Structure formats: structure tokens, C-alpha cells
Amino acid sequence: MAKCEFCGKGVVFGNKVSHSHRRSNRAYKPNVRRVKAVVEGTVKHVYVCTSCLRSGKVNRA
Questions:
Q1: In this structure, what are the phi and psi dihedrals at residue 50, rounded to the nearest 5 degrees?
Q2: Which of 3, 15, 29, 39 has the fewest beta carbons under 10 Å from its own?
Q3: Is 22 within the bounds of a domain?
Q4: What's the pLDDT score for residue 22?
């Protein structure tokens, strides 16, 4: 679910590094919102990252 339908930004995996420099896996999730947008002339609920919302790539309904 954590994937933007306009730019394709999704989950990226990396390492969590503690103070003692021990490493464990973690996930970096994009800031995705469910909004009503006009897609191909119809109003649909889509999952969009906030950078696409701010840049104007999405026509809100």
C-alpha cells in the first residue's frame, strides 16, 4: 500500500544503526495519503505521496 500511484515512490530498505554501531534492518516509508483525484476524467481514490501533492502533479477532486 505504501506506494505512490503517480511517481512510483515506494518503500526503501536500509540499516538502523545504534549508538554502539550495531546494525539491524529497517524500512523507509514514503509519506502517502489517500486522496480523491481526477484520473482519466473520473474521480477515484488514489494513494499519492505528499511531494506529488505539493508539486501539483495531482488534480484533486
A1: -70, -25
A2: 15
A3: yes
A4: 98
Is residue 42, in this structure, part of any structural domain at all? yes
Three-state SS at 21: coil
Residue with cell 484533486: 60
In a domain, 51, yes or no: yes
Per-residue DSSP letter, 58 = S
Q: Is residue 60 part of a domain?
A: no
pTM: 0.80
**CA 22 – CA 40 distance, rounded (Å):** 49
Q: Where are the alpha helices (DSSP H) in 11-49?
A: none
C-beta of residue 39 within 8 angstroms of C-beta of residue 46: yes
> Which residues of the chain have a pLDDT value below 50?
none
